[in-house]
Amino acid sequence: MSETPPNTLQYRFDGPEDAPVLILGPSLGTTWHMWDRQIPELIQQWRVFRYDLPGHGGAPAHPAVSVADLTARLLATLDSFGVQRFGYAGCALGGAVGVELALRHPERIASLALVATSPRFGTADEFRQRGVIVRTNGLDPIARTSPDRWFTGGFAAAQPAITEWAVQMVRTTDPGCYIAACEALAGFDARHELARVGVPTLVLVGSDDQVTGPAEARTLVAGIPDARLAVVPGASHLVPVEQPAAVTDLLVRHFSTAWQPAYDSTTGQMAVPAAPVKPVLTAAPQAVPQVAPQVAPIAEIAPAAVAPQPFGRPDPYDAGLKVRREVLGDAHVDRVLAQADEFSGDFQEFVTRYAWGEIWDRPGLDRRSRSCVTLAALVAGGHLEELGFHVRAALRNGLTPDEIKEVLLQAAVYCGVPAANSAFRVAQQVIREETTPEG
User: Fold this and answer.
1) pLDDT for 161-170, tens place per residue?
2) Which of 210, 267, 270, 280 has a CA-to-CA distance to 59 between 20 and 30 Å?
């Protein structure tokens, strides 16, 4: 425990002083106690360092409005103890700090675990809208709905004490620091930098996580060169709380076997082993227990052999499907592809290959710009049936509601007021659905 200056974080150490350091980072609205059930096993091998976010768990209310700021405070705290190199596991916002460490301070981090983490958490407007709710109503509405976001229904019903602990943990957070942490998540976007994460990485997610679920986890695994995926059954967002034994086992296995060597101070270089072929850690199907979560058996499955690519121009279909999912979302793409039949299947393949693989994947415009162009073109063509999900796509691509409004106002000048009037009705409904938090 510590007195905490504004440029550092509230912290605690557990475990032997001479062991390598392993850091555990918390999620928004939680405290370091979310990792309590991992500690007895982890301190057998590591000196575990946990920290609280500003204003969380009684920590001083010095707001940090960016992930970079949180990371700088963490490093300042570690520097005060002479901790230069460490393993890092973080959940959600704590995971974003881990990504920031790997990107900006790779010499400090030996191995990484990202729990319930995304390279970009929803839309910026979603978190800013949450801040509006907290400013207006305090943290009680967020606290009351936190169990729905964090736990499966069965677990919440069977563990009322843990559910109440979660509610009180949010209620006792400083509102200003909570809003600042929302701003930090709103501004975080590492999607185009994942290839530069150079440490062995475990990406761990609950199978029923509705906040940052398996789709986001797979995006991380696809982008990070040396990453492995673990999907834990019967768990939602706070998977270390809901399935503690499974998470502990995965962390021990990862940090015991994937600890990148330190830089050689005499040469200034580091021996980096070749990245292994990525296995996927997945779980054998089994019934989810209603009271005490059990360790689900986790099996490593070797990926299917990749057929050699023929000479010539590569087929853009796979790249197109990846972009289509990232822009429109897995739920939409899965629904459209599931509806395809013998009559429409060739058209869906055509759209994926050429619209998404050829055009949307071109480097000449970023995705925000492509969303602006697409919205204007759909208004001009009167394609309102397509406009709704492209408004959602624009929000996913980083456009704010105000920016979408400006696109539609511009379209009103060049495409006509009636077309823009219809477009505003569609966009207004979508933006309300996407930016109003549940509860």
Assistant:
1) 999 999 999 9
2) 210
Task: Tell me the pTM.
Answer: 0.63
Instruction: At 107, give phi and psi (nearest 5°).
Output: -70, -15
CB count in 10 Å sphere of residue 202: 22
Cα–Cα distance, 403 to 395 (Å, whole number): 10
Distances (CA, A) of 439 to 3, 363, 427: 36, 40, 22
C-alpha 374/C-alpha 365 separation (Å) is: 12
Q: Round to whole Å and give the CA distance between 21 and 1.
A: 16
- 185 token code pair: 């998540």
Three-point CA angle 32, 438, 375, nearest 5°: 115
The secondary element (H helix, E strand) that includes residue 205 is strand 201-206
Q: pLDDT, tens digit, for every residue of 256-267?
A: 998 987 755 444
Strand runs (DSSP E) across 288-349, as ranges? 298-301
Q: Which two tokens stand for residue 254?
A: 């990862």
413, two tokens: 């000048």
Instruction: State both tokens at 141.
Output: 């509405």
Q: In this structure, what is the dihedral angle of CA atoms 61, 182, 22, 256, given to the nearest 10 degrees?
A: 170
- How far, in Å, CA of 349 to CA of 358, rounded? 12
Picking from 362, 228, 365, 354, the residue whose alpha carbon sits closest to that of residue 298 is 228
Q: Which residues pair with 231 in a beta bridge?
A: 205
116 Cβ contact list (under 8 Å, min separation 6) = 27, 91, 92, 95, 204, 205, 206, 209, 211, 212, 237, 238, 239
Residues 6+ apart with CB under 8 A from 132: none
List, edge to edge, every strand of the sheet that includes 10-14. Answer: 10-14, 47-52, 21-25, 86-91, 109-115, 201-206, 227-232, 280-283, 298-301
Question: Quick check: 437 and 133 in contact, CB under 8 A?
Answer: yes
- Residue scoring higher pLDDT (438 or 227): 227
Mean pLDDT to the nearest integer, 175-199 = 95
Rounded to whole angstroms, what are the CA distances from 41 to 46, 112, 179, 230, 277? Answer: 9, 18, 34, 19, 29
